[in-house]
Write a structure and sequence with these properties.
alpha/beta; Rossmann fold; five-stranded parallel beta sheet; two-stranded antiparallel sheet; 6 helices; binds flavin mononucleotide
């Protein structure tokens, strides 16, 4: 059975527009998927510290109990993403960037020798490529402009770890009046109806 990892990062939880779109996407998948959902706000990662990175770099057999607990945060995040056949990410725009909870999660995934490696010809991603569906919700309109810092960042960090099959689904102008919000959400729902049935189970 194919497995989908859902990563939500809205501070509004289940009421978040990005969470609701990612849930609609899941509901539109053909039968035969198992799912695992991470709520990065409810179960948030602390900011990354050098103490935690040192735990990753200490050989497993030499780790103290504290280091074992610290390394487990990243080990578990990496295992979850490796296990998935497809990934769904809900990403609201907060203060022109991604939610800091999502950044803290990426800080656990990007690990030299684990999810990427440096070679003479540059960095190489070590995650097996798989489809990623990104639900980007915004109060204003940014897509295709220099103010959209989210799309380039998500392209860079996910490509860096080997994830290249990225599908962005935008719902923009959500805080620009009911008509604008309705138009954006129905366009996102139309994209869901197009994309979800084609995901291979
Ligand atoms: C703290 C905060 C900061 C925000 N900053 C921006 C912003 O910089 N640009 C923007 O277009 N919308 C901004 N918004 C609006 C959200 O992007 C918009 O409401 C979106 O639907 C939130 O997604 P969510 O419902 O999944 O959390 C902000 C909202 C909050 C709560």
């Amino acid at each position: 059975m194919a497995h989908v990892l859902v990563i939500n990062s809205s501070i509004s939880g289940d009421k978040g527009q990005s969470t609701q779109l990612s849930q609609q996407f899941l509901a539109s998948l053909p039968a035969g998927f198992s799912t695992e959902t991470l709520d990065l706000v409810q179960d948030s990662y602390p900011h990354l510290t050098m103490t935690e990175m040192a735990a990753w770099m200490t050989p497993e057999s030499d780790r103290s109990d504290e280091q074992k607990a610290l390394a487990a945060l990243s080990d578990q995040a990496v295992a979850q993403i490796k296990k998935a056949d497809a990934i769904v990410i809900g990403v609201p725009m907060y203060n022109f960037g991604i939610p800091s909870q999502l950044k803290a999660y990426f800080d656990r995934l990007a690990r030299a020798g684990v999810t990427f490696k440096y070679t003479e010809s540059g960095p190489v991603g070590l995650l097996q490529d798989k489809p990623v569906f990104i639900f980007a919700t915004r109060g204003g309109l940014y897509q295709g402009t220099a103010l959209d810092s989210q799309t380039p960042f998500l392209n860079t960090i996910l490509n860096f770890m080997g994830l290249k099959d990225l599908n962005f689904i935008y719902a923009e102008g959500l805080n620009m009046g009911p008509e604008s919000a309705e138009k954006a959400l129905s366009a996102a729902k139309a994209r869901i109806a197009e994309l979800a049935p084609a995901v291979a189970a």
